[in-house]
């Protein structure tokens, strides 16, 4: 099978994120295993697991490089959204239009080190999240900041415009 170039991967993801999220795509084991909370947040179901890391889509963060700060993660997220042609702005709890949804960025850190991030998605009156290897699930309480027994910091709510 021919290897797909980085530019082609980004192009395919860009096409997906401007459409309605296809939850039936997660019926595929490959899709469940090669996507994560970030891909779910942006609405991408293409099986490109190595690119679904904040900063990778925009090319500003090598896959093997640690994050330095919460502000860096936020800045890289903004650059990824710009690369994908998605509107990205802080969410002020205003009414959403049909082509808008909300993502929440949660970051797990210890002292000054960023250990991980997680995204929640709000669309059509429903909060969802996705973990690698699983389908997206509906969550009842998006304000919880405990995931898998470790505290996560609520680092921002953003309105995404397709």
Task: Walk me through the structure.
- By secondary structure, this protein is α+β, with helices and mostly antiparallel strands.
- The chain has one domain (6-161).
- It is 24% helix and 28% strand.
- It has helices at 6-17, 29-34, 37-42, 70-84, and strands spanning 87-90, 100-110, 113-123, 126-129, 137-138, 146-147, 150-151, 153-161.
- The strands form two sheets. Strands 1-8-2-3-4-5 form a six-stranded antiparallel beta sheet. It has a two-stranded antiparallel ribbon with strand order 6-7.
- Strand 6 and strand 7 form a beta hairpin.
- The N and C termini lie far apart (32 Å).
- The mean pLDDT is 91.
Q: Any descriptors?
A:
162 residues, alpha+beta, 24% helix
- Globular, elongated, flat, extended or rod-shaped: what is the shape? globular
Please write the string of helix (H) and strand (E) elements: HHHHEEEEEEEE
Number of domains as seen in the coordinates: 1
Using the CA coordinates, give the radius of gyration.
15 Å
Roughly what percent helix? 10-25%
Mean pLDDT: 91
* Number of beta-strand segments: 8
- Tell me the strand order in the biggest sheet: 1-8-2-3-4-5
Question: What is the subunit arrangement here?
Answer: single chain
Low-confidence stretches: none
Write the layout of secondary structure elements.
Blueprint: H1 6-17, H2 29-34, H3 37-42, H4 70-84, E1 87-90, E2 100-110, E3 113-123, E4 126-129, E5 137-138, E6 146-147, E7 150-151, E8 153-161
Antiparallel strand pairs: 1-8, 2-3, 2-8, 3-4, 4-5, 6-7
Question: What is the structure about, briefly put?
Answer:
This protein has 162 residues and is an alpha+beta fold. It has four helices and eight strands, in the order H-H-H-H-E-E-E-E-E-E-E-E. The model has no long low-confidence stretch (mean pLDDT 91).
């Amino acid at each position: 099978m021919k290897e797909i170039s980085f530019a082609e991967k980004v192009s395919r993801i860009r096409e997906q994120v401007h459409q309605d999220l296809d939850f039936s795509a997660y019926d595929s084991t490959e899709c469940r295993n090669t996507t994560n909370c970030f891909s779910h947040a942006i609405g991408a179901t293409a099986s490109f697991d190595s690119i679904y890391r904040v900063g990778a889509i925009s090319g500003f963060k090598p896959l093997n490089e640690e994050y330095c700060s919460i502000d860096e993660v936020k800045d890289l997220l903004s650059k990824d959204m710009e690369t994908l042609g998605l509107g990205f702005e802080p969410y002020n709890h205003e009414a959403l239009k049909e082509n808008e949804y909300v993502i929440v960025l949660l970051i797990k850190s210890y002292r000054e080190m960023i250990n991980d991030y997680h995204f929640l998605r709000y669309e059509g009156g429903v909060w969802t999240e996705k973990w690698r290897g699983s389908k997206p699930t509906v969550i009842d309480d998006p304000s919880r900041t405990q995931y898998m027994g470790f505290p996560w910091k609520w680092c921002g709510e953003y309105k995404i415009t397709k």
